[in-house]
Each structure stands twice: as C-alpha cells, then as structure tokens.
Write a structure and sequence with these properties.
The chain has about 220 residues and is α/β, with parallel strands linked by helices. It has a domain of about 130 residues: Alpha-Beta Barrel (TIM Barrel), CATH 3.20.20. It contains seven helices and eight strands. Strands 1, 2, 3, 6, 7 and 8 form a six-stranded parallel sheet that branches. It has a two-stranded parallel ribbon with strand order 4-5. Helix 1 packs parallel to helix 7 and helix 6 runs parallel beside helix 7. The longest helix is centred in the C-terminal third of the chain and has 17 residues. The protein is globular and about 45 Å long. The protein binds zinc ion. The site of zinc ion has 5 residues, from loops.
Length: about 220
C-alpha cells in the first residue's frame, strides 16, 4: 500500500528525514531512483534538458559501476546524485552491518551526501548510523510509476494534484517504470512549468569524486 502524497501527520514522527524542502517559492525537486539504466536514463536526461529542468538521481551503486558513462552524463548535465545502496537493500530485512556495507560500496562510486533508502524502508538504528554522514531524503509526492497496475495518466495526476512549493517527487529511471514514466514525465514538466514551477536539484547532490574516477569496482558477495 502506498499514498501518492505522504500524510503531513507522519512527518513529525520521522523528523530526522527530509520529506520536502521548506520554501514558499514555486520550486519542485524531481528525483529518479534505481538507475542509471541504458534504456531509460538517456531519455530522462534528454526530456529534462528540453525543459531546462534539473533533478536528482538516486543511483544503485551496481548500476553506476556497470554504466559509468551514464553516471558521468548525469553529472555533466548539472543534475544531483544520491546514494541508493549498492544493491537496492530493504533496510527492514537487512542487518545494520550489511546495510552500511551496501551504502559504503555505493558511496565509492557516487561520493554524494544524499541518501535515499530503497522502498523507503530503513530502521531507526540505520538512520542513526547514517545521519552524520548523509542527508536522508524521503519524498512528499509519489508518481507511483513503479506500479504496473496503473497507467501513465494516473501517474500524472498523482504528481500534479499533490505538488506544493518545495515538493520532493519520486520517479524511477528503471526499465520497469518506463511505460508509465515516458507518458508522465513530459506531461508533468509541461503542466508544472505552465503553473510557474521551476525544477531544481536537491542541495548536497554533488559528488566529491573526480570526473575521471568512475571506477568499476567489482561486485562483492553480500
Ligand atoms: Zn529504489
């Protein structure tokens, strides 16, 4: 079960996590999870560029190691990057030790100060362990493009009906989400632009790694 808009009631319970940016300006923070993926990420980058939009990509470390050219392109085009673990770990089903290891492996190829827990599932202990090093980014608006039971039009409504100034919106540049994403992203960009919104990358999404260091580190046993 999920809600397209995170209830305001929930947020004070998890106030260490970032749900939206505090602002009255009409800015939106689009985020793309689970890439980079060769069949989707270049299209997302082209579509964002057509609208002069900047976004933040929460990358799976394994995918960055497999597609360093795509990761380099995300950076070169002025978007932010975030850590999304090496292998898309569910924090509720992973020991804190193994979870941190997966985050650190991803960090070797992303070098960012933003982190988003896969599935939004992270334990209190894991939050405490990561907090000093990362800003943990959740969302207030879900496009639900991962949901194969809905269509792209529904994803458009999920976003445009729920966005507010400073919203953090989740999309996926994954192959699975592509049928809905390809319909929803251009329409969302057009609709929100017509409503005077600008699309800005989240602060802290620059990487400390030099451009040359998109090293492929070998996947390790987990
Ligand atoms: Zn994910």
């Amino acid at each position: 079960m999920y809600l397209a808009r995170t209830p305001d009631l929930l947020r004070p319970l998890y106030k260490d996590l970032l749900w939206s940016m505090p602002t009255t300006e009409r800015v939106v923070h689009l985020t793309f999870d689970d890439g980079p993926a060769p069949r989707t990420t270049p299209w997302v980058l082209d579509t964002l560029a057509r609208h002069g939009a900047k976004a933040t990509f929460f990358c799976i470390g394994r995918n960055v190691a497999m597609h360093p050219d795509l990761f380099a392109r995300i950076r070169a085009e002025g978007h932010g990057v975030g850590n999304h673990t090496w292998d898309h770990r569910n924090g509720w089903r992973t020991s804190t030790f193994a979870y941190l290891r997966s985050v650190l492996l991803c960090q070797m190829v992303t070098g960012t100060s933003l982190f988003r827990p896969p599935y939004g599932k992270i334990s209190r202990e894991q939050v405490r362990a990561l907090q000093g090093r990362f800003r943990i980014v959740m969302w207030d608006v879900l496009s639900a493009d991962f949901d194969t039971r809905i269509d792209g039009d529904r994803c458009i409504r999920n976003v445009v009906q729920n966005v507010r100034p400073g919203s953090i919106v989740v999309f996926h540049d994954s192959i699975k989400a592509a049928p809905r994403l390809r319909k929803a992203l251009p329409a969302v960009l057009e609709n929100l632009t017509a409503n005077d919104y600008r699309f800005v990358a989240l602060p802290g999404g620059t990487t400390g790694l030099p451009a040359s260091r998109q090293a492929c580190i070998p996947p390790t046993r987990s």
